[in-house]
Amino acid sequence: MLNTSLHNPNVKDKPTVERFIAMNRGINDGGDLPEELLRNLYESIKNEPFKIPEDDGNDLTHTFFNPDREGWLLKLAGGRVKTWKRRWFILTDNCLYYFEYTTDKEPRGIIPLENLSIREVEDSKKPNCFELYIPDSKDQVIKACKTEADGRVVEGNHTVYRISAPTPEEKEEWIRRIRAAISRDPFYEMLAARKKKVSSTKRH
């Protein structure tokens, strides 16, 4: 607020340091902050205004500039009707993004790879398949999001993501790259270990 008041040309009545100190009385749980601190803060903002970075609309372009891997894959839809959808996948920053077209600026879905595992699977309808899944959990929904046709962003509903690659070689390479990108949360591992311990104790 002080930054705007001091540096916005439309504000004619610039606040003095005394007014700034008066405005901030009682903000420290009912008490006052040290006057020297407020004076230093005032001078700092006066001499060096905050600059908000301009939104050039290319944030995602930078994100996807140097991906670990990208290419066309088939993804099994998670709705009631299980259909295969061709999507452009980009692997970067420990996330798997997928797009409807290579020219799309916004992804149709984002799958954070944290705490996930990957495995090869056989599918009667598609060759070269692999799955992303949560270890030690059959029914837990993977934390992910997707954009609906009407533009709404919703949570994903997959307990596994089944994906088909065009060739065996591409399948192997995708698995290798995704496995390398997967990051594990120590807290999650601790909970999983504790869960195993509790279940084994119950069995005894």
- % residues in beta strands: 15-25%
User: What is the CATH third-level topology name of the largest domain?
Assistant: PH-domain like
Q: Give, in order, the helices and strands.
A: HHHHEEEEEEEEEHH
- End-to-end separation: 63 Å
CATH homologous superfamily (4th level) name of the largest domain: Pleckstrin-homology domain (PH domain)/Phosphotyrosine-binding domain (PTB)
Count of strand segments: 9
Going by CATH, the architecture of the largest domain would be Roll
> If helices are DSSP runs of H or I spanning 4 or more residues, what is the number of helices?
6
The helical percent reads 25-40%
Query: How would you sum up the major sheet?
Result: 9 strands, antiparallel
> What's the number of structural domains?
2
Radius of gyration: 26 Å
CATH class of the largest domain: Mainly Beta
Pairing-aware structural class of the strands and helices? Answer: alpha+beta
Domain PH: 66-183
GO biological process, one term: regulation of ARF protein signal transduction
GO molecular function, one term: guanyl-nucleotide exchange factor activity
Organism: Myotis myotis
List the helices and strands and how they pair.
Blueprint: H1 2-7, H2 17-23, H3 35-47, H4 59-63, E1 69-76, E2 84-92, E3 95-99, E4 109-112, E5 117-121, E6 129-133, E7 145-147, E8 153-155, E9 160-164, H5 168-181, H6 186-203
Antiparallel strand pairs: 1-2, 1-9, 2-3, 3-4, 4-7, 5-6, 6-9, 7-8
